[in-house]
Amino acid sequence: MLPKKISALLIAFLCSTIGFSSNATALRDPTLPGNFSGKTDVETDSSNNTLVLNSVVKNNSSAYAVINNQIFTLGERVKGVKIVKIADDSVSLADGRKLTMFQAITDFKGQ
CB–CB of 30/46 below 8 Å? Predict the structure, then answer.
C-alpha cells in the first residue's frame, strides 16, 4: 500500500512539475521591452545605410555623438565610415557626409 501511495504522489508531482514548466515557457517577462521598443528600430536601421544623428555631447576634453542610438567618439567607425569631426550639432564622416540634428532641436540650443 505504501509503495502505491508513493508512486501516486510521485506521478502527481511529476505531472504538476511538467505542467508548470510548460506554462512557464509561455509566460513573458514583463520587464523586457515590447515589440515596438527602440532596440527593434536600431536593428532595422542597421540593415541599410541610413545614419541618424540623435545627439552630441561635448566638453573641453572629449566629444560623443549618438548615431542610430549608439554612442561613438572621434575616430571611431559607424557602419564602416570613420568619424572625422564632431561639432556642436553635426558630425562629419570620412566619406564626405555630414550628419546634422533636426532643426527643431538645434533651434533651442543656447536659448
Answer: no
Question: What grid cell was written down for 95?
Answer: 566619406
Q: Which three cell numbers stand for residue 7?
A: 508512486
CATH number of 47-107: 2.30.30
pLDDT digit string (tens) for the chain, length 111 residues: 556 666 777 777 766 666 555 555 566 667 776 665 444 444 444 456 789 999 999 988 899 999 999 999 999 999 999 999 999 889 999 999 999 987 555 555 555
Rounded to whole angstroms, the Cα distance separating 14 from 99 reads 60
> Does residue 89 come out as left (phi exceeding 0), alpha (psi in the -120 to 50 range) or beta?
alpha
Q: Please state the domain extents for the chain.
A: 47-107
Query: Which conformational region is residue 57 in: left (phi greater than 0), alpha (psi within -120 to 50 degrees), or beta?
Result: beta
Does the predicted TM-score (pTM) go above 0.90? Answer: no
